[in-house]
Amino acid sequence: MRIQKFELMCALLILATGVSTNVFAQSGNANSAPDLPRQYAATAFGQAGVVSGKSFGLTVYITRWTTDEESQSYVATLKANGQDGLEKALSKTKDVGRLSPSGFVGAVFRMARFRPTPDGGLHIVMVTDRPISFGEAYNNTRSKTYPFGIVVLDVDKDGNGTGTLAPICKIKFNKNGNLEIEHYGQKPLRLTNVRREK
Description:
Helices cover 15% and strands 38% of the residues. The protein is of the alpha+beta class.
């Protein structure tokens, strides 16, 4: 188990400029939002534990950006009802994209946010309420309490870059009111050779 402060996690849910309480906010407006749909390919590398040194290909599809209003609603839900409330709220939203490892259908994204970067690129964050396997549910494993998956992409103006995949996470506010991301198990997977295909 690994706990990292939100501010140290590459701004996983994208802090609004100067507005530390709106953790899901993004820079830019509807008129300047990056074009959609988008498709990125990448190679994921394990960094520790049983997946250390192992790799696989994956594809990231983005079909819609989550609005500021939706993000603010998610923050309010997380603060009021915890991650169970957030998970329920996300499950009721329309898909905004999909993460598909090579050879698998993958999982849908429930939230996709972006922040322009100084070089003309994008910092993109996607969150999914990951599917809980039958084995997890039947055996009531501790991983059941880590219901989210998070993907971060940092790409340049041509759509090339790097990223991170944290497949099993908790998202919560701690007792000091700071947002934390807690990983189940090992370090997030490193995404390399990220490139835009469409």
